[in-house]
Amino acid sequence: MKTNEREIKSLIEAVEAKYSERVQSLVAAQQSFEKKVEEAEKKVSDFTRAIKENSDNVCRELDSNKKENKKVCEEVKGIMSKHSGVVSETYADKLKRGAGCAPVILKPKKSQQSNITRNEVKECINPANLKVKVNGMFNRQDGAVEIKCVNNSDRDILADEIKNKLSQKYDVEIPGLRYPKILISGLSANLECDKVEKAIRKQNDVLFEHLKCTKVFKSQKNPRVFNAFIEVDGVAFKSIIKEQRINIEWDRCMAYESDGVLRCYKCWGFNHKAAMCKEQHQICAKCGENDHSYRECQNNFVKCRNCSIAKARLNLADIDEKHDARDSCCRVLQRKVKLQAERTLY
């Protein structure tokens, strides 16, 4: 019995010794791990503090040199614009230059040619004596001429002078300016105009002095989608076109600038609709020939009917007519768009 007790006792002591060694090993490992964690936290803290100090220094440096940096940037931009010859204006921006100043239109009370009207105006009136700046004088139909000035003040002075000296032979008109128009694309429902206006006012962060929905119509490309035309004041127009999106009820629609040019889709001319067109046959927008549409055209050549007519009527040898009548490079279309831009209150 005593031998067995001694064996059991020694076995227990061996187990306790082994367990004690294991516990000591775990405690040492835990202490080592905690030490490494403390060292890592210290490094992270030091690194974060260094980043913050560097960021503060950079911010202070930028703030102290803010005015100087702005001045240098302006000087660089000035030098680049002066010597590079690169113009940052878009074509639309160029069209809007001088917009908002309606011309003076001089109409003869009796039938005569525009050249006679032009010559009589030049004989009776001298812009230099009035100290007004004139952009040009242009012939119109029925013997009328159109005179453009740099600003409204100069135009009014010139119009008053023409009325004083030539009112017996001519009617003087100043056409009213129109509001900019926007094409809205992507409506999922055929809404009434008043609902479109109400939704635009309530769902968009834009202040409107003027807002009018003029038309809601079905898209030709997708019968399930509807489009709309709205006219707005100049400030709201710039804000919407910059965003290029507008919210209307459940839809976030695309917003595009509308040039406001009235086109006929039968003859591809201007200033009238297809329902009022005097042409008996459909004119092809691609080749300029009649009796077929551009979808049915099988000709290999391209010819703009508008530029062809203008070239023959005005004897313009340099005008290019080898393009589609719908092409944005069309000189006649560009002229119409430019006229609309000049008479728009941007």
Q: Mean of residue pLDDT?
A: 82
Q: Helicity range of the residues?
A: 40-55%
Q: Stretches where pLDDT falls below 50 for ≥5 residues?
A: 81-89
Mind telling me which CATH architecture of the domain at 181-258 this is?
Answer: 2-Layer Sandwich
Q: Specify Rg, calculated over alpha carbons.
A: 39 Å
Output the CATH class name of the domain at 181-258.
Alpha Beta
For the secondary structure, the number of strands is 9
What is the CATH topology of the domain at 181-258?
Alpha-Beta Plaits
Number of helices: 10
Shape: elongated
Report the span from N to C terminus. 115 Å
Give the strand order, joined by hyphens, for the main sheet.
6-7-5-9-8
What sequence of helices (H) and strands (E) makes up the elements? HHHEHHEEHEEHEEHEEHH
**How much beta, percentage-wise?**
15-25%
> SS-based structural class?
alpha+beta
